[in-house]
Specification:
Largest sheet of chain B: 7 strands, mixed
Shape of chain A: globular
Shape of chain B: globular
Largest interface: A-B, 21 and 23 residues
Oligomer: heterodimer
Radius of gyration of chain A: 13 Å
Structural class of chain B: mainly beta
Strand content of chain B: over 45%
Order of helices and strands of chain A: EEEEEEEEEEE
Distance between the termini of chain A: 34 Å
Structural class of chain A: mainly beta
Amino acid sequence: VQLFESGGGLVQPGGSLRLSCTASGFTFSTYLMTWVRQAPGRGLEWVSAISVGGTSYYADFVRGRFTISRDNTRATLFLQMDNLYAEDTAVYFCARWPPNSFFDFWGQGTQVTVS
Amino acid sequence: EIVLTQSPVTMSLSPGEKATLSCRASQSLSSTYLGWYQQKLGQAPRLLMSDASNRAAGVPARFSGSGSGTDFSLTISSLEPEDFAIYYCQQRGSWSPITFGQGTRLE
């Protein structure tokens, strides 16, 4: 199992970024997927998740600004981030979420800096 | 929102000693919905324990988990040098939202 995040970078407040998470080594279409972030020197914070069928779930602090999606044909997870705040600065991890279980495989993360 | 409070924030021990980390939930939680992760500096988190007491694949037997209701714990029976890291508990009982504890740094 491998997960590789990309798309992070430096963006101004109010700007947008689109993160991608490319998966391999498992049947992507049969797993929930999720995004978790970690601000500098801080703990883990759940951001969003998407079901096999495409139902999305969000933390309150990103609802209306971030959109999670998936492309099962390309085994890729996305996070469209709009209207970014300085407080969104963090490393963003994608993770695999098996049914009735926990986040069992994680990518190495991509840095997002809003400044 | 289910708030998870971990204690202590920092724990200072030596290799060979026993560590017991605590995670308290703000409301009762089925043990099925409580997990633990380990994170080393500069690395992604690693799943250690699911359903409060089930070790994930490849996790050494010195790690054990227990608890029910609002009080859960992670025990490392005899610390190895590679165990010094930050540990997080997480609940998946309520998806509004999924929450993590603030972490315990084991040094």
